Automatic annotation (TrEMBL):
Keyword match S-adenosyl-L-methionine: yes
Keywords on record: Methyltransferase, S-adenosyl-L-methionine, Transferase, tRNA processing
Any single Pfam family the record assigns to this protein: TrmI-like_N
Name of the protein in question: SAM-dependent methyltransferase
Domain tRNA (adenine(58)-N(1))-methyltransferase catalytic subunit TRM61 C-terminal: 72-238
Amino acid sequence: MRGPFQYGDRVQLTGPKGRLNTITLVREGEFHSHRGVIPHAEIVGRPDASVVVNSSGEEYLALRPLLSDFVMSMPRGAAIVYPKDAAQILSLADIFPGARVVEAGVGSGALSLHLLRGVGSDGALFSFERRDEFAEIATANVVAFSGSVPENWTLSVGDLQETLPTVCAPGSIDRVVLDMLAPWECVDVAAEALAPGGVLICYVATVTQLSRTVEQIRRSGGFAHAQASETLVRGWHVEGLAVRPDHRMVAHTGFLVTARRLAPGTVLPELKRRASKSDFSEADLGSWLPDLGPEGAAPASAEVWTPEAVGERSKSDKVLRKKVRETQQFARERGGELPAGEAEERPERADPARPDGAA
């Protein structure tokens, strides 16, 4: 994380027009642009935050990427949790050094990297993922960043409801982070794993998922009142007297729902509030959320909550296999040690340069 650049390091190059390019330093490698070439050997040995000059005389600022830079430029198979949301998750869930944290699902490993940094070497992260391809992509990205699979990281492939009880003892977990299509299906198993006072935090993309998650947390009776929020980030252009908001911003990515685990047998007191037009009945819920109708009503179809129904874009198996190969090659370029069975040899890429966000 400090010292002169070495082969295998990830380097972020900022050109004259502010364009970012992230490369991995390899022997005999070169960074090419339409304006010139920078041999990787010209970067190796220089201190962090140095300026290098390409073959046509243009200057580039060379920096080691921050964690937020890394996750935005790493290969991905599934949509990642953006740094703005990962930062909120670490804060709202109070991820502390030494914490025992459960994460489901893993996706491309962006949130896993933030959680591993949050729990530190004394903590433990238990990650769960349904799809083998996503687990392999996440593993390769974590290895690319860390150099090897962290000893305090356990990645299990399978359904959380079935796998979590076999991995973590009841009441042994401090925090549970759910990033999945239907987190409400896992509220009960999360409650069983959490210690009293532990935090459940769910990341969902749509308003209907938000409503369904909060209602299930309320119905479960195992948590304090849930809180919901979203985070919008607006950058500012500051140059001389031209000080104004940027024309573009990172707006809605997802909602965060947090709730504290009650002690077993505790009955949460109802909030006292005046009667209003916002009071609702079971029939009202059924009209808004198809699977939350009054008792005795016909159950909703299993097709109600699908990735397509909530607007998720999925990748084909062929594309995912390609992403697995890409991330494993990415880890090898950085000198990472992949787990046995995942380190099959692949042809080296001719040009390891990859523009930020092009994953």
